[in-house]
Structures are given as structure tokens and as C-alpha cells.
Design goal:
mainly alpha; Arc Repressor Mutant, subunit A; Four Helix Bundle (Hemerythrin (Met), subunit A); 2 domains; 3-stranded antiparallel β-sheet; 9 helices; about 5% strand
Length: about 210
């Protein structure tokens, strides 16, 4: 559907900072930018409002950044859900329900993330980092958790985009990814959950000091 296309394209423009927090968007302006009619754009803006990425403002919407307390809440929810999905992925691995090719794919993303992080390629590193965590959520096999995480990830990404910088300890970030990957491959659910939770909370602390990425 055209509204889905409009939603996807506009969401990406918000997530990559083309439309930063505080930017005001109108149906007319967005329709012109996307070269689409106003009807699918109107539906896309409604969906993005429900997603928490924009809020109504006059005849348009404004891109939203979470306030400090709400951002803290978002990280707590993310930590809990990523602990759950890591635990579920490790459990499914122990039950033989994850294909070896999927684990190879997860390994490849972890390696690519580590390389981009070490080289300070922030835009690439952010995208790969999210792909790594999303892949774990997909392997967990819980659609509700994945859908909720997508919304939380989006809100955190928009809210922290301006403060992103190469991590001061890229080896630490990569080490946590390696530990998480190992816990899943070796089917250690409790360890996977603990590592995932600690990783998110470390990220929260680093992001608050404006020295890392989400």
C-alpha cells in the first residue's frame, strides 16, 4: 500500500536525522518531498504519531525527542525486552530450533559491527548495531517482543542521534556482543539474558555521557 511506503520512507528520514527532533512536517511538504499524494502521507503521519516519533502541532506534526525521564524509561523497557529475546534465542538454540545459517548470519553482523565501530564509521555502526540486536529478537521467535522493541529502538535512536559519537571503548562494546553471541550459540539462556541486560544498561550510561551509540 502507498501509505506503508510513505510510512517507511518518512520513518527512515526521521531515523537518519534528515528530519531531526523539533522539525515541523506538513502533509503538503512531505508529499512534495516523497513525490506522493497527500492521502498516503496523511495515513503515514497518523501511524508515526501512534509510534511516538511525531506529535500533532497545528496543521502538521513535529518530530519528537524523548525527555530525559522518558528516555530512561525507554532504556529500562529495552533492557528487559532484550534480556527476554536473548534468553528465548538461547533456549531455542538449545532445542535445535535455530538453523546454523542463522547463527552464521548473526556472527557476520557482529563482525561487521565491530569493524565499523573500531573505524569510527558511526552511521554504518549504528545501523549494523541495530541489525545485530534485531536479528537476536527475530531468532527469539516472539513477534510481540520484536514489534515492541522496534518502537522503543526508534524512539531511542531519534532521541540520542544528536549526541552520538564513536564509543570511547569500542573493544568493550564488541566484547559484549561476542559474549552475547557465545551465550546464544552455547544455549545458555540465563547468561544470555544477563549479558543483554547489562549491555543495554551500559549503553544507557554511556549515551547519558554523550560518548557512545545506541
Amino acid at each position: 500500500m502507498q501509505s506503508d511506503v510513505a510510512w517507511s520512507r518518512l520513518r527512515e528520514l526521521i531515523l537518519d536525522g534528515t528530519y531531526p527532533p523539533g522539525a515541523r512536517l506538513t502533509e503538503t511538504d512531505v508529499a512534495a518531498a516523497l513525490e506522493m499524494s497527500r492521502t498516503p502521507v496523511r495515513e503515514a503521519l497518523r501511524a508515526l504519531t501512534a509510534d511516538g516519533l511525531v506529535r500533532p502541532a497545528g496543521r502538521g506534526v513535529v518530530v519528537v525527542a524523548l525527555e530525559a525521564s522518558a528516555l530512561e524509561d525507554a532504556y529500562q523497557v529495552r533492557a528487559a525486552l532484550e534480556a527476554l529475546t536473548a534468553e528465548l534465542a538461547a533456549t531455542r538454540q538449545g532445542e535445535g530450533r535455530i538453523a546454523p545459517a542463522d547463527l552464521v548470519s548473526l556472527r557476520d553482523v557482529a563482525d561487521a559491527t565491530a569493524d565499523a565501530t573500531a573505524r569510527g564509521r558511526m552511521a554504518e555502526a549504528v545501523g549494523l548495531n541495530r541489525r545485530f540486536h534485531r536479528r537476536i529478537a527475530e531468532l527469539a521467535g516472539n513477534a510481540v517482543a520484536l514489534h515492541t522493541l522496534e518502537r522503543v529502538w526508534d524512539q531511542i535512536q531519534v532521541s540520542t542521534l544528536r549526541s552520538l559519537a564513536p564509543p570511547s571503548r569500542p573493544a568493550h562494546v564488541s566484547s559484549q556482543h561476542e559474549q552475547l553471541l557465545a551465550a546464544i550459540i552455547e544455549a545458555r539462556p540465563q547468561d544470555a539474558a544477563a549479558i543483554a541486560r547489562a549491555h543495554v544498561l551500559d549503553t544507557r550510561a554511556v549515551t547519558h555521557s554523550k560518548d557512545g551509540f545506541t
